[in-house]
Design brief:
There is one protein chain. The protein is an all-alpha fold. The protein has 2 domains: 473 residues, Sodium/glucose cotransporter (Up-down Bundle), CATH 1.20.1730.10; 51 residues, no CATH class. Helices cover 68% and strands 3% of the residues. It is built from 25 helices and 6 strands. A two-stranded antiparallel ribbon has the order 1-3. Strands 2-6 form a two-stranded antiparallel sheet. It has a two-stranded antiparallel ribbon with strand order 4-5. A hairpin with a 5-residue loop joins strand 4 and strand 5. The termini are far apart.
Length: 600
Amino acid sequence: MTNSAAMDTQTLTYIFVGFSFALYIGIAIWSRARSTAEFYVAGGDVHPIANGMATAADWMSAASFISMAGIIAFSGYDASVYLMGWTGGYVLLALLLAPYLRKFGQFTVPDFIGERYYSKTARVVAVICLIIISFTYIAGQMRGVGVVFSRFLELPIEWGVIVGMGIVFFYAVLGGMKGITYTQVAQYCVLIFAYLVPAVFISILMTGNPVPQLGLGSDVVGGDVSVLARLDGALVDLGFTAFTEGSKSKLDMFAITLALMVGTAGLPHVIVRFFTVPKVSDARRSAGYALVFIALLYTTAPAVGAFARLNFIHSVDEQPYAEAPGWVKTWEGIGLIAWMDKNDDGVIQYGAGAPFEGRADYTGEAGTHGERLLANKPTGAVNEIVVDRDIMVLANPEIAGLPPWVVALVAAGGVAAALSTAAGLLLVISASISHDLLKKTFRPQISERVELLAARGSAAAAIVVAGYLGINPPGFVAQVVALAFGLAACSLFPAIFMGIFFKAMNREGAVAGMVAGIIFTLSYIVYFKAPWFGAANDADHWLFGISPEGIGAVGMAVNFAVAAGVAQFTAKTPPGVRDMVDAIRIPTSVAVSEIKSGAH
């Protein structure tokens, strides 16, 4: 890429990202929340199509936009668990949870758990679980904003996080759920356009087919072999496992998929979206629309991942470093690509195995061939280059040589994806503190005005904490892809599911189940992922061969078993609560609100 092209890309990026920020802030001002109902659930009158778009944006975080195709690019078949788990979770939401929670008619997930299990303790435990899940998830979103800004706006990662905090602060604190909802509709449009445009371009260039989903199985232009067959051959020649072959056991694949599915159905920032529509039927329709909008990206991701890996191999393998594409040295400059010339020939060799021990640790000096020298000790692998998988979507347009405006569009899409999910997570944290802890537990006498002020104050405080975690993420959190989903699967999902479908489940059982599930799952993940115990990636000692990414499925089973056992030996559920469960599940002329007064 020439200097003028790079300058054009930089200018376009500022324009695209700046315009999107102006759009988000304008929407926040237009849709400012003026009551707690508007702040928590957007007044409950959001159209199902708009809510479906907002839900899709809320769900498709930086992990979906930036990371998922990168995971697919480097893991191939094994990464299919993310596609199946994350989309399958919406089927569970549509069929098992969304309509019943909307009929219950409250503001938050802890609200449902506190009322259904007639217990302030259950409400507080649910709030604690929600906060752990949300802050774990949000650290990655804020970090994603920092990475995008660092590359495309030439800001340090820390300043990128701070700018992102400022934007989210404006429309989350000012607009609440009402502002976030309509902002997320705009963010969905930005991110899906930014994801599909380069995918279509690259599919045409590689296969002549404008539909990426079909291009993945089409023949490469000028050849009689498909994209997948060529990628399989290239990877096997370099010593990797074929793209279409997996290395995980069937049990682990099943456990990860299940954990991601029920974790999706139990994520609080996703569930709360179904409280924002006017009717029970609209909740189910919203889930259906959301699944369609999400499928546009998720069915495209395998093609994006395969195209990116194939282009990456052709761009770097056996390429003299002095003649390497400009994007290699750009990403190397921020530490997300590293090259170690083991045989001092000035040529990049790419293959299986780690090129050096540990993560990239630059000395600050230039090598013989112009490379940035690494202080790390080389390994015996032939491989000389390592690439952070999170850059594959962002770098994909540059790798494929697409126009500068496409590169700028992808930058705007990456920021939109990270900010949309961050805003949703911040709101559920805010609502759980101001509504569930303050209004419903410790200070029930406060006015709506004071509660709204508390909601905005707790949102502001949560943004500060989220920004700190984005700038200084705990080491092990960055390594645990499925941590938030596993925690949601083992804690909130069973409590919500049993609360809807099992009238006999009482408060003692629900509390014991949530505590047991989250302690078991969190302990397992920390033990095998955190560096403190020295067991990182020690697959030989995994329980039943299940990885930390899938252990949430076992934690869910622990929750169900403990809850059922405790419920057998403690007081039965009060009759008023049983009537309330019937009112939620069975069509009746009696409203849930008319029964709640007899629930305690």
